[in-house]
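pasting for ref
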Amino acid sequence: MALIDDFNLAVSKSKELTKRPSNEELLELYGLYKQATEGDVNEPKPMGFDFKAIAKYSAWESKKGIEKEKAMQDYINLMKTLQEHYS
């Protein structure tokens, strides 16, 4: 299977977890997903009291410079771990 197919499968499986991962794990998934699909952060940092948006931005920004293929593989690997713990 090609990397993109494995990545898309992992993304679909992320919606099938029977238990909710921790906020840190969800933010890690989000950052890897955005890096894999869009590359380096390309929007301004949210301001004010929207802490959820700021956390998501920071998770994505923390992946800056990681190549899309590596972000995809890291996402796949993280999902395998999450499936073991939350399925």
